[in-house]
Amino acid sequence: MNANDIINEGEEHILHTYNRYKIVLDHGDGVYLYDKNNKRYLDFVSGIAVFALGYGNKEYNDALKNQIDKIIHTSNYYYNEPAVMASKKLTEISGMDKVFFTNSGAEAIEGALKAARKYAYNKNIKNPEIIAMNHSFHGRTFGALSVTGNPKYREAFEPMIGNIKFANLNDFESMLNQVTPNTCAIIMETVQGEGGIFPCDEKFLKDVRKLCDDKDILLILDEIQCGMGRSGHMFAFEKYGVKPDILTLAKALGCGVPVGAFLLNEKVSKNSLVAGDHGSTYGGNPLVCSAICKVLDLFESEHIIDNVNAIAPYLEEKLDALVQKYDFIQTRRGLGLMQGLVMDIPVGDIINKALDNGLILINAGSNIIRFVPPLIINKENVDDMIDILDKCLSSI
Description:
By secondary structure, this protein is of the alpha/beta class. The chain folds into two domains: 3-57 and 303-394, Aspartate Aminotransferase, domain 1, CATH 3.90.1150.10; 71-301, Aspartate Aminotransferase, domain 2. 40% of the residues lie in helices and 18% in strands. It has helices spanning 3-13, 46-49, 58-70, 81-94, 105-122, 142-146, 151-154, 172-176, 202-215, 237-240, 266-269, 286-301, 304-325, 348-356, 379-394, and strands spanning 25-29, 32-35, 40-43, 98-102, 129-133, 164-167, 183-189, 191-192, 198-199, 218-222, 246-249, 260-264, 329-335, 338-343, 359-360, 362-363, 368-371. Strands 4-12-11-10-7-5-6 form a seven-stranded mixed beta sheet, sandwiched between helices. A four-stranded mixed beta sheet has the order 1-2-3-15. Helix 3 (58-70) packs antiparallel against helix 12 (286-301), helix 4 packs across helix 12 (286-301) and helix 13 runs parallel beside helix 15.
């Protein structure tokens, strides 16, 4: 099928919940994607922070092919080696105690919320409350949507699950005002993504951690987008010297296969979910867990986090130069290879122009361009991106 036929068939048969760009992506190589007409695009979105290793990594692809030839899926009533090895690797690098594998980030949030509620139930808290952040985004399922701090995502689907309160990120007094004896958990992104690329302040996060310790409140950190090396640490919380009680992961955890996870520390794992409390047909199957194992191996052997720390300052420098050059760009903010340019104009036309010129970008809200490229990018890729973006900005 040609590109137009594919687009027309898609419009006829796929539920219209995305306003898709009129291109059909066909294959990838490194940090580049190619459409059905073989036009090349420099990818600074990486499937929304998913393809950390870039496209066509042979070791990664071979690991999946080898697993497909062995066994793709088996019930969680039995053990499988990739799941056991993936859980071992994850607990070792995170310092957490136990792992539950899911199919997505939203499902990881659902499991984290259930674990927090069960922890509260075991403490005889009758009406447990959870505090979430304004401007946060945690997913589209009902539980995840209930703790997403943006009314436009929630209002058409209300009522949400109950006993959710909202505070402001990096405003500790706002947090304290929401705490009651029924507060069982506080959930936040270590770096807010969809809400505008807002990293947590170190003092704020440490104060919240102390509050949670003092009142036996569980701290849930959502690192679905900012985790897995993107911050310059394997997990962004490491930068702050804190640890969550529950951690959620997805996106780059599998670098393309649909997999997420929530991880529990020992306190929560021993006092929350037990057999029969939670489950997933596909969660932790051999195929996705073989991907996790290979991703974690490649992060080490290819020095992915070292590359993030080498390239991120260069990307920041180049983005800061654009801030100085154009008066409609207000600021740059972010952490590692998760950056945003904040503008006082809508960014949709800029992203469209960039796409026409072979650069894939994405927004974070109507006035922010988000940069979440593969973690293997080099300075030349940054220069090429800046050249195209500068050309698009200069036409405004």
